[in-house]
Amino acid sequence: MLLITAGAAQAQTSQDVVRLPVEQVTVTTEKGDITFATEMATDDKTRSRGLMFRRSMGEREAMLFHWPTPRVVSMWMRNTYLSLDMLFVTADGIVVHIEANTVPQSLDVLSAGREVSAVMELVAGTAAKLGIRPGSRLKHRFFRP
Fold first, then answer.
1. How far apart are CA 36 and CA 10, in angstroms?
2. What is the DSSP annotation of 57-126?
3. What does the pLDDT look like over 59-112, one tens digit per residue?
């Protein structure tokens, strides 16, 4: 009986995973350009859902939360099982802050403490591994040079 219950709970969690439209986002670093297949969270519903309930994500996959008007953004890890690197990005595509190796399911508030237009989430450790740091630039139609 326990196995059936556990299986049902796991099935429910996998049904809760929502996949969003994917676009290419390129990050320019001192080491060169890195392109990510990026799910786009661009409205209140998709931004509030984010990567909740995901159990895996590839190193070259990401999610981009975008707001058309810059604002001070606060993120948390509620129902997020993956540790992430969060890149806080200005309207011109500049990474101004990185929250690296976030704690899964934490309710701690994560913020750049300044206005941004986007947050890009990567698998934890990816930013350091690929040389992404404050000053790196995202290239995508959302960011004006």
1. 28
2. --TTEEEEEEEEEEEEEEE--TT--S-EEEEEE-TTSBEEEEE-SPPTT----EEEEEEEEEEEEEETTH
3. 999 999 999 999 999 999 999 999 999 999 999 999 999 999 999 999 999 999
99: tokens are 């929250």
**What domains lie within the chain, and their CATH numbers?**
2-139 (2.60.120.1140)
Name which of 100, 80, 77 is nearest 88 in CA terms.
Answer: 100
Q: How many Cβ atoms from other residues are within 10 Å of residue 98's Cβ?
A: 19
Average pLDDT, rounded, for the chain: 90
Distances (CA, A) of 64 to 3, 67, 74: 36, 10, 14
pLDDT in tens, 98-131: 999 999 999 999 999 999 999 999 999 999 999 9
Whole-number Å distance between alpha carbons of 11 and 82: 18
CA 98 to CA 8: how far, in whole Å? 37
Residue with tokens 């390129």: 26
Helix, coil or strand: residue 23: strand
